[in-house]
Design goal:
The strands form two sheets. Strands 6-7-8-3-9-10 form a six-stranded mixed beta sheet, sandwiched between helices. The longest helix has 17 residues, at 177-193. The chain contains eight helices and ten strands. Strand 9 and strand 10 form a beta hairpin. The radius of gyration is 18 Å and the shape is globular. With 257 residues, the chain is α/β, with parallel strands linked by helices.
Length: 257
């Protein structure tokens, strides 16, 4: 499979010696096109810092990040705006919807920001609305939606421009077990049916069991890797393997769904 994202020796340090904190301490990894990769670790392990560096929310101290061979840290101006708006889609834990916009308007907002005619996104919008089962809330405001509906609206917004890479930051963190299961099944379906490339940070072992590969981070470095590469292995069996690694890390949430 084609490599879409490459990270080499990524470092993010806060403060100065002797009180320096190494949030990321030389992480290297690759993400393949069409992969569903999970990043796991206990609180403070560096997993969210890693995602924020890729999203250009946080500037790394050192190392390299390349999306399709283009070095992310070197992007400026219109190239950086295009990267943030077209190359990546971001699904937040707390939805981050605009309260004064309807579901439809929230989803279409990236098209407006990127100056893409709404008519071009019409077909994509119809497909996503049907697949994510949000047709009945498209014209409602966030205050009129359940948590699961808000997160599926947010997912459609992240996907509307068909980005190269979808970044998910604890996407089930604000959802109950039923809505968490529904969202993960939809994300897994998009990965399998549309070959969407997804990089998901989570401490939820059950959510992680939908991934095809998981990297575990401890103290800013990669601690272990798990692959779900046995065709006969069920999601439950993969989940149990994840729990064993998380027990060694001293974190993780058992959230059965």
């Amino acid at each position: 499979m084609e490599q879409i994202l490459e990270i080499e020796g990524l470092r993010k340090y806060y403060g100065r010696q002797p009180n320096q904190t190494k949030a990321l301490d030389g992480i290297s990894l690759q993400v393949l096109r069409g992969e569903f990769l999970g990043i796991m670790g206990s609180s403070g392990s560096g997993k969210s810092t890693l995602l924020n560096c890729i999203a250009t929310v946080t500037r790394p101290t050192g190392g390299r990040m390349l999306l399709q061979g283009q070095e992310i840290q070197r992007l400026k101006g219109s190239a950086l705006a295009r990267y943030r708006g077209r190359k990546i889609g971001y699904l937040f834990q707390n939805f981050e919807l605009l309260d004064n916009l309807t579901g439809r308007e929230n989803i279409l907002l990236p098209l407006s920001i990127q100056q893409v005619p709404a008519v071009e996104g019409g077909k994509r919008l119809a497909h996503l609305a049907q697949y994510l089962e949000i047709m009945d809330v498209m014209d409602k405001f966030p205050a009129q939606m359940s948590g699961g509906q808000k997160q599926r609206i947010a997912a459609a917004r992240a996907l509307i421009l068909n980005p190269e890479l979808i970044l998910c930051d604890e996407p089930t963190g604000a959802l109950d077990s039923k809505n968490a299961k529904g969202l993960m099944e939809k994300l897994k379906g998009l990965n399998q049916e549309e070959k969407a490339t997804i990089l998901m940070v989570t401490h939820d072992s059950n959510a992680a069991s939908y991934c095809s590969r998981i990297l575990f981070i401890r103290d800013g470095a990669i601690f272990h890797e798990l692959r779900r590469d046995m065709p006969s292995e069920s999601r439950q069996e993969f989940y149990e393997r994840i729990l064993k690694v998380m027990a060694q890390l001293g974190g993780g949430r058992e959230y059965v769904f």
